[in-house]
Amino acid sequence: MKEILVLYYSHTGxxxxxxxxxxxxxxxxxxxxxxxxTVPRVTTVxxxxxxxxxPSAPPSEPAAGAPYAELKDLEECIGVALxxxxxxxxxxxxxxxxWDTTGELWLKGRLAGKxxxxxxxxxxxxxxxxTTLFSMMLPLLHHGxxxxxxxxxxxxxxxxxxxxxxYGASHHAGGAGGQPITEPERKLCIALGRRLAEIAVKLSx
Length: 205
Fold this sequence. Notes:
The chain is an alpha/beta fold. 36% of the residues lie in helices and 19% in strands. Strands 1, 2, 3, 4, 5, 6 and 7 form a seven-stranded mixed beta sheet that branches. It is globular and about 40 Å long. The protein starts with a strand and ends with a helix.
């Protein structure tokens, strides 16, 4: 069984729910399964006396949700789906921090040629969904990964009045983060996972 890493950071739970939908799409492809992982939160404390962020030996399991990702997850999986909420049009700091630790993989070209996809959730409808998706693509491109988007052959892409972009799946969560994922958003998350897995399986054979 070949695996796709579904790696996310979620603050209010919307991106976690999207990750589960992307994973469902991955699992719909024969011979493929999703390995769902998250990343620890980071702190704004930056004095020299503060402990490392995240701790140098964090627990393998957070209080709830998926296990924390390790670099070996990136190496062992044949593709990556990357999800983060928007922070001023950019990926959240915990996800950026994780990718800042992948220099060794970059030096060795471990991720080059693997397909990758991105997804995000925002509080406001025009809150930087597309720029956040592009910000997550940058480290993936530096690693030599192949970006997978959502084609307009998916009918929900032209029917949605909430989230959904050709660059990756997205969700409009509302100001309090409690707006449910719409049916078009849900279908686009699943479609993204399915397309990523299909391409990854072809590239890995």
